[in-house]
Structures are given as structure tokens and as C-alpha cells.
Amino acid sequence: MRNMTNKMIKTRNPVKTKLKLLKTAAKLFAKQGFAATSTLQIAKAADLNEALIFHYFGSKAKLWEAVKLHLFAQLKVPAIHPEPESFEFFLEQAIHQRVYVYQQSQELRQLMQWQKLEKNAMQMKAGNVIAPKNWFVPLRHLQGKKMIRTDIAPEMIAIWLTGSLNIMIFDQVTYFKEADAYERYLQMLKEGFKKIFLD
Fold first, then answer.
1. Distance (Å, rounded) from C-alpha 6 to C-alpha 161?
2. Helix or strand or coil: residue 40?
3. Intervals of CATH 1.10.357.10 along the chain
4. What's the whole-model pTM score?
5. Distance (Å, rounded) from C-alpha 182 to C-alpha 99?
6. CATH superfamily of this structure's domain 2-73
7. Which ranges of 49-86 would DSSP assign to H, the alpha helix?
8. What is the pLDDT, as a whole number, of residue 124?
9. In 137-150, which positions are buried (b, 16+ CB within 10 angstroms) versus exposed (e)?
10. What confidence tens digit (pLDDT) does each residue in 3-56 have?
11. CA angle 90-166-84, nearest 5°?
12. Most buried pick, 106, 116, 168, 179, via CB within 10 A?
């Protein structure tokens, strides 16, 4: 049986097989979450041997991480400039990344919502291009140039900005169903952050 499984693995196109597993897992994870989706379900939906998941990814948790990275890669998100010319420029980049990326990918948004519900959510948070920790370097640069207040830690600024944006992205707030509500909120957010953090 082991020889047969190894033979199946060797005769398949590894690139196409991995991509099929990633796409299938993305759909199931987005619909059911991590805990409710088994590797057997993914394999059956992809019409592939379950052993291939462990061969290519090692575990279900690593597959989950690979799915998120795959979805981010499809969006081709530019990284935030490490030395922004102004706090306003940084805000524009950070907001564009976090809000518009999740608007482009419903599967990615659903995955992140499921992730928050998992018991081991902190362990499932793999680094990605729009992770708030990527904002620390540009924020420290702005503080070093005395462009923003230096008495507030970059981590605190990032937490505050992330929370303010996540309301728009993940929470079902009635206000955001109104026409132009997103743009009005974003403008208010930018103006508010500039008043608070500009030195």
C-alpha cells in the first residue's frame, strides 16, 4: 500500500496537484472553517489521495497557512514603504492594503473570520504582507523623523488602526450598507488619526 501511494505521488504533476489542493482547501476552509474541515474532505473534494496533503504540506495547519499565503499572492499586494514621506502617505497605504485586499477576496475574508473563532487562533496567525506588524518599521521611521508623536508605541498605533479598519472589514455594521459609507468612514478615520498622532 505504501509503495502504491509513493508511486501515485511520483507520477502526478506536483505543481498542478498542490494548486488543486490549495484551491479546494480554500473553498472548504472558507465555508466550514478550520476545525470542521478534515483533510479527508479536502482530498475527496479534490479527487486526490489524502496522503498527498501530508506529502506536500505536512499537516492540516500548514495547509491552512499555505492557503492564506496563496490567496494573498494572487492579489499581488505591494508592501508598505519602509520610509514613508508622511504619516498621511503611510495611512493611505495601510488602509488600502487592509480594506481593499479583503474586499477583493471573499475567501480570504471568511478564512480570517473563522481563524478568530479557533481555540488556537494565535498559533494560526502566519505572517503576511498586510499583517499590522509590518507597519512597525514605517511608524518608527516617522517617529525618528519627528513626523508623528514619539510618546506612543508603534504597536499601540497599529492595534488602534487595525481595530478601526476591522470594523469595516469583518463586522456587519448597518451603517456601512449606506452609499459612500466606506469612503466617509475612511476619511473620518484618516482625519482623526492625523489629529491624534501628528506631532
1. 49
2. helix
3. 2-73
4. 0.74
5. 10
6. Tetracycline Repressor, domain 2 (1.10.357.10)
7. 51-57, 60-75
8. 53
9. ebbebbbeeebbee
10. 545 545 554 688 999 999 999 999 999 999 999 999 999 999 999 999 999 999
11. 5
12. 168
